[in-house]
Amino acid sequence: MKPFIYDYSFEQWQEWVKTNGMPAFRAGQIFDWLYVKRVTSFEQMTNLPKALRELLEEQFRFVTLDEIARYESKDGTVKFLFELQDKNAIETVIMKHSYGNSVCVTTQVGCRIGCTFCASTLGGLKRDLAPGEIIAQVVKAQQLLDAVNERVSSIVIMGIGEPFENYDSMMTFLKVMIHEKGLNIGQRHITVSTSGIVPNIYRFADEDTQINLAISIHAPNDALRSKLMPVNRRFPFADMIQACKYYTEKTGRRITFEYALMGGVNDQPEHAEELAEVLKEMPLAHVNLIPVNFVQERNYVRTPREHIFRFQRILEKNKVNATIRREQGSDIAAACGQLRAKHLESSAR
């Protein structure tokens, strides 16, 4: 199969034009057509010689993201269910904030991490996405926003899949997103979330970027985390915390720890006290408390609102910064993986 036209970083385009005996400025022109003008065909690249357009068409293909469904929430959230060229389906979400538009992207078709509260893992992992398939999600979102003269201002890599298990594709995606000749998203406006793939936390720390890191923690100890997140059996809690300490020491940057609160499971005062004890040695730690989304196939219930605030107060009493995530798109099944799960169920009938 030919690579996707979005698969290459700017540096790879520079190498490609050089290899094909073309002047260096052609790389900038190609990037401009893809990410500034956001064309959808090679024919639209009108300032490129016909021979170059034909060569591009011969060697590359545009990503096919066919819109299966689009849902718009009363709060402005837009959720897409896209069909890929191989008929697999992925989700992408645009979230509207007071500070701009954020896009949540997917990095894999399905997920093998197996978190027991998440819809993304239903059906397991099918395959990794190519860099271009991740990039195309942001391009599609930006094309929608173009119609209202708005732009993508931030990105969260928190959709379906584990980004750190598709590491190289994720890094190519990031290089394209932050490049000044591309979409030019500020590094500090991008967050990548991992379930705790320890070797790649170290690797990411050594990348020397300003991109934000979030860790799905969801429990304050080994035993409970292994029940909620089977990945903890591969990368134990203590090893993950040690990798996080390395990250903060190496980069000087804050880590956000995502903690989904599940009624009667991990939301008791003793859990908050234990989590504070773990994180007190990490002054740059920040906890994002997430009221768990209801997933039909899962048995977890939402923590009562007053208990969420109680959990936050205990953390802050122990000098651990904590915020409560604002809910968005709850009326359109915007929890990660829910639309895809429904699509798989209906396709199997």
From TrEMBL:
Q: Any idea which residues are catalytic in this one?
A: 91, 336
For this UniProt entry, the molecular function terms from Gene Ontology, in alphabetical order, are: 4 iron, 4 sulfur cluster binding; metal ion binding; rRNA (adenine(2503)-C2-)-methyltransferase activity; rRNA binding; tRNA (adenine(37)-C2)-methyltransferase activity; tRNA binding
CDD domains for this protein: Radical_SAM
Copy out the cofactor comment: Binds 1 [4Fe-4S] cluster. The cluster is coordinated with 3 cysteines and an exchangeable S-adenosyl-L-methionine.
| Localization per record | Cytoplasm
Q: What keywords were assigned to this record?
A: 4Fe-4S, Cytoplasm, Disulfide bond, Iron, Iron-sulfur, Metal-binding, Methyltransferase, rRNA processing, S-adenosyl-L-methionine, Transferase, tRNA processing
Question: Which superkingdom heads the taxonomic lineage of this protein's source?
Answer: Bacteria
One Pfam family, short name please? RlmN_N
Q: Which NCBIfam families match?
A: rRNA_mod_RlmN (TIGR00048)
Q: Which HAMAP family does its entry note?
A: RNA_methyltr_RlmN
The record's function comment reads: Specifically methylates position 2 of adenine 2503 in 23S rRNA and position 2 of adenine 37 in tRNAs.
Q: What is this protein called?
A: Probable dual-specificity RNA methyltransferase RlmN
Q: Give me the gene this protein comes from.
A: rlmN
